[in-house]
Amino acid sequence: MVIPTLRSPIVLVHGLLGFNKIQVGGVTFANYFPGVPEMLQAAGNRVLVPSLTPAGGIAHRAKELKDFLAQHVPNEPVHLIAHSLGGLDSRYMISCLGMADKVLTLTTLGTPHRGTSFADWGVGRLARLIRPMLDSIGFNYQAFYDLRRENCAALNAQAPDAQNVRYFSVAGRHDGHLLHPEWLLPYHIVLKHEGENDGVVSVASATYGETLDVWEGDHIRLINWYHPTAHWRGQWKDPAERYGALVRRLADLGF
Q1: Which positions ≥6 away from 19 have C-beta within 8 Å?
Q2: CA 210 to CA 250: how far, in whole Å?
Q3: Residue 161 — pLDDT band, cuts 50, 70, 90?
Q4: pLDDT of 187-220, one tens digit each?
Q5: CA-wise closest residue to 242 among 170, 151, 183
Q6: What is the average per-residue pLDDT within 40-56?
Q7: Which of 10, 31, 233, 250 minimizes the number of CB atoms within 10 Å of its CB?
Q8: Among candidates 249, 52, 242, which has minimal Cα distance to 167?
Q9: What digits encode the pLDDT tens for the residues 31-46?
Q10: pTM for this one?
């Protein structure tokens, strides 16, 4: 696939417990969106990847994202491609922090726009088991509370879509067969309460704005994390195919 060059920068926004990249001594060991920035840059696109507080609340991370854009692209609007929690951060920033004129499009990947029942299930257990420890080390874990379904309903009322921003979404879906072990518990909780999902976010919750596609695979397959099972099942695809299609869509719309 030939990937087009957009006129405005692309900003990739990571999700819960995410990062932009992990480096030791100048050597990069991991990227949150492996291979994606390089692939888009090779096509002539300007790509930025901010680093937000891993489990900070939506309002906190949205402010960090706003500050990042003000520092790195102060004079031009951007296209946001956001995974998971990053999509909620982006929506809050656009609608509640006066950034509607700084964003052309927002494409969310596996974002729990209506929350996730796994957060409903897990927050009480988090509070009982490890909240004292997290408080003692000053760890910001507000995101776990923000992702509850009732809190996302409140966010949706607080942050209506900006009229001049185009909103797109991609959901993920896994059938549960040979699902990686870390996704088994949340997958079945969400399946029981919300239906088909990617291991933590339901298709229904991830659908928002103009729905572009449902990608087969678990939650981290949406950001191109490789897993042998996904490759064996034919669910692993070259990022150029998936992300290239997202960028092609924006180019076809005149961006």
Answers
A1: 30, 32, 51, 54
A2: 12
A3: very high
A4: 999 999 999 999 999 999 999 999 999 998 889 8
A5: 170
A6: 93
A7: 233
A8: 249
A9: 789 889 999 999 999 9
A10: 0.88
Give the residue from 69, 75, 61, 78 showing the smallest Cα distance to 18: 61
> Domains (ranges, CATH) in the chain?
54-74+87-216 (3.40.50.1820)
Specify the 3-state DSSP secondary structure of 113: coil
3-state secondary structure of 166: strand
Instruction: Decide: 44 and 37 in contact? Cβ < 8 Å.
Output: no
Separation CA 226–CA 85 (nearest Å): 20
Q: Do the Cβ atoms of 155 and 58 come closer than 8 Å? A: yes
Q: State yes or no: pLDDT of 143 exceeds 60.
A: yes
The per-residue b/e assignment along 70-106, b for 16 or more CB within 10 angstroms, e otherwise, is eeebeeebbbbbbbbbbbbbbbbbbbbbebbebbbbb
Q: Do the beta carbons of residue 221 and residue 227 sit within 8 Å? A: yes
DSSP reduced 3-state for 174: strand
132 pLDDT higher than 60: no
* Contact assessment for residue 81 and residue 74, using Cβ atoms and an 8 Å cutoff: no
Encoded tokens for 149 = 């379904």
